[in-house]
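[step 3/7] fold_predict: job queued, chain A
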Amino acid sequence: LTSSGASQHQLSEAIGLIGREDFPARWPGLLPDIIQRMAQLGAEMGNVQGLLYTAHSLFKRYRHEMRTDELFTEMNLVIGQFAEPLTTLAMNLLNLVIGPGRLSDGTQLVP
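[step 4/7] structure written:
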């Protein structure tokens, strides 16, 4: 989750592929691990980008799944766990751009 460049995309896609079969039933710790890392990142934009790409790789399958009770149960689990940390991350990143603690050097925001 913290590598960079092409290897980050490959790792993220691999996690997404494994997660398609194993998440959440056989890999219940995946989402809590992603959330924990989100809380630790701060303004390390390369790592933030990699983590969000990993989450995207994991969650993109929900776009095309057939509607079932099992799917909605899983989506409620994901939203219930991921929405608040993602919102907090977005607010913290916005604070770096427009808030009172904004960065004076915008190059720090580019991975």
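[step 5/7] annotate
The two ends are 15 Å apart (CA to CA).
The first helix runs from residue 5 to 22.
exit 0
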